[in-house]
């Protein structure tokens, strides 16, 4: 994961929760049904859970409440500090989707609003790594912005620019948002059976089980 993406969150650590709660109109659609998205990821998980990109600990909180054994990885120091203060007993380490020290036993990998920081090639490499660390029936449960086609992605960019939401449009152009057909192939190549469920106009749930 590029350091430029990590550094972006230095400025966002204090205002992130305001953004996800819908107080920022520009990102309201992106974070629509935010709590439901987190709850669904939690419900689909089990056992020892590795969470990538803990952020301020919103998903972490739900995972802990569900009595899972949670190990968090967060590459941004400012975000890690916020989560560590909320959950002093949490195992919280510096790491990301590709670079992390894996515990001996993992049942579920989870993340929300994170997978798009990897290129498609990196996404494939990450899924191969997860598959190698999971037993049959182990899971990857990710929620992130995904598009049905490249044309749909461009249409969304054009829509946001027409609304004057240039920050959202710039995000969509700058980062590595991909399509369901591409992701389906990557999951299948890594040995997963995956289901996609639309959660809002941007976010899809990726519920993948190791074959």
What's the CATH topology name? Rossmann fold
Please provide the ordered H/E string of secondary-structure elements: HHHEHEHEEHEHHHEE
Counting DSSP H or I runs of 4 or more residues, the number of helices is: 9
Largest sheet: 7 strands, mixed
Which CATH-level-2 architecture?
A: 3-Layer(aba) Sandwich
Estimate the global geometry from the Cα principal axes: globular
Q: For this structure, what is the CATH class?
A: Alpha Beta
Count the beta strands: 7
What structural class do helix, strand and pairing data support? alpha/beta
Radius of gyration: 16 Å
What is the mean predicted local confidence, pLDDT? 91
The fourth-level CATH homologous superfamily is Vaccinia Virus protein VP39
Question: β content, as a range?
Answer: 15-25%
Specify the helix fraction band. 40-55%
């Amino acid at each position: 994961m590029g350091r430029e993406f990590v550094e972006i969150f230095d400025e966002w650590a204090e205002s992130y929760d305001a953004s996800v709660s819908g107080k920022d109109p520009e990102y309201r659609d992106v974070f629509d049904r935010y709590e439901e998205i987190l709850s669904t990821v939690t419900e689909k998980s089990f056992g020892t859970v590795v969470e990538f990109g803990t952020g301020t600990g919103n998903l972490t909180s739900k995972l802990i409440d569900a009595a899972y054994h949670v190990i968090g990885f967060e590459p941004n120091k400012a975000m890690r500090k916020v989560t560590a203060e909320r959950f002093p007993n949490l195992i919280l380490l510096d790491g990301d989707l590709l670079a992390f020290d894996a515990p001996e036993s993992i049942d579920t990998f989870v993340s929300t609003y994170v997978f798009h920081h990897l290129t498609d090639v990196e996404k494939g490499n990450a899924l191969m790594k997860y598959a190698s660390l999971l037993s049959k029936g182990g899971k990857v449960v990710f929620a992130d912005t995904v598009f049905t086609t490249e044309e749909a992605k461009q249409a969304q960019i054009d829509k946001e620019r027409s609304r004057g939401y240039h920050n959202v449009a710039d995000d969509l152009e700058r980062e590595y948002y991909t399509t369901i057909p591409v992701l389906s192939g990557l999951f299948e190549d890594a040995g997963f059976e995956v289901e996609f469920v639309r959660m809002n106009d941007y976010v899809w749930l990726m519920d993948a089980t190791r074959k």
